[in-house]
Amino acid sequence: MTHRPVSITMALAGLLLLTGCGTMADRLSAVGEAPPVSPITNPTRERGYQPVSMPMPEPQVTERQPNSLWRSGARAFFKDQRAAKVGDLLTVTINIDDKAQVSNTSTRARSNSDNMGMANMLGLETQLEKVLAEGTAAGSLIGTSGNNSDSGTGAINRNEKITLQVAAVISQLLPNGNMVLHGSQEIRVNNEVRVLNINGIIRPEDISAANTISYEKIAEARISYGGRGQITDVQQPPYGHQVLDILSPF
After folding, report:
1. Which of 144, 220, 227, 229 fits a disulfide with 114 by CB distance 3.0 to 4.6 angstroms?
2. pLDDT at site 44
């Protein structure tokens, strides 16, 4: 039994080393240097990239009128400067103002008491002292009591506001005319890199004349805003705390 706590401690230490070995080595090799900025790459060639597949309507045959200046599906006689094909750029406006406030209080109390005896049982109650301890009373053989009280209080008060603009590129055209966009932006200030990623599906009709689109008009939107660097490292708990929070039952 004395070796069991030591074994558990060694197992936890080994788990911590395996969990943070690679990341710790990378961080140690970058001591004194600013965090690197990711290079510009083709999103369709990144690891884990998968083309978007959505339910599509049946294709419609477009009738062309000879000697006509109007082309079916066109929005103007002149060339449209808005994003329309793979590789075109457009600006995504992100204006998130999210507020949530929840408060919950619960209290529970329970008290019980039981007493059981054997006052008369065919005269056998007089023989209890021969079997049990001296002074045992037949009227109070068993007595139990219990008291339980629980109380809990929880509150959520969240206020998030993000106002950003990011240029995105059209990476895929869907059969029904909708487009898949991919945008990424990295800004390094001193030793902290702020990273903004956005992906989703848009309709050409939702793009404004200024070639911009608001984030709430993006279907299947995936917006990620965070960072990496010294400030992010300080805000995150150490690996040991994270592992203990997962394994601890209390």
Report:
1. 144
2. 85
